[in-house]
Amino acid sequence: MSRYNNQINRRYNQQYSVNKKPYFVVTCVALVIMIILLICAIAVTRSEYKKSQTLLVDSSSEVVIDDSSAENNSSAAGNTSNSSQSSSSKNDSATSSKPQSIEVIDGYSVYNFVGQSSDWRLKLSNRLNVINNYTPSTKYIGSQYCQNNDNYQIDERVYDDLIAMIEAAKEDGVKLISVSAYRSYSKQQSLYNNKVNYYLKQGYSQKGAENKASTIVAIPGTSDHNLGLAVDFNYLEQRYENKPELVWLKEHAEEYGFVMRYAKDKENYTGVIYEPWHYRYVGKDHAKKMNQLNMCLEEYVEYLQKNS
Hints:
308 residues; alpha+beta; Muramoyl-pentapeptide Carboxypeptidase, domain 2; four-stranded antiparallel beta sheet; two-stranded antiparallel sheet; 9 helices; 46% helix
């Protein structure tokens, strides 16, 4: 009887062992698949994180509408550059030059005023008003107001109003963080050169690379940041335009002398896409008047010259 029971147990164990094998294999396969999916998820997350960090580090660079990468647009870019250089001699004195139109791409024209105001708060820095060798007296904003405890600088004449605005927002429960402010001409040149070199490595010609780079990083001397009068806040993507920080700025910035420099539907004047994060100091009176007239800085400077 004992021998018979041993045989039954042996057969049962053999059968059970055979039946366990498929489940063991399936479990192993499922585990491998889960590990692979986890690795992929981590890789995607890291990639998105790096992308977001790259965006925040220094992408506040006036993304110009010109998105031309074709070689047949290079000559147009060259003409634009020549126009910019010829206008640079007028930068430091008020002029009454007629507005000019730059053909950018696919018939899209940028109506960009050539001229300057004698008021430092209204100084233009764009493709037709290139600012060279301009170094403002700056003051550190304070690391507590900057991203990652950096300590950006701003024109010292703007400092008090900037801090007052940040503190006022704080009282309303809104935390304004500067992610970019003053950039020297050499810094802007370095950013621009790096982007040009990137496109050269992608196979672009020199002119093609310069043209393409200028759609992402402002050409040195054409950026508000070179003047020390602009600050980028919190977010650097249009999809964040309804975030509390950017909504607060839109409603209150003029009270402290700031305006949204690159407003929506003003690309034909500024040559720059809508940037709800980029605020430019123009002074309290001018800020209020510009918003009342619904004018960007190019329009406003021209308006003042016509009505002076």
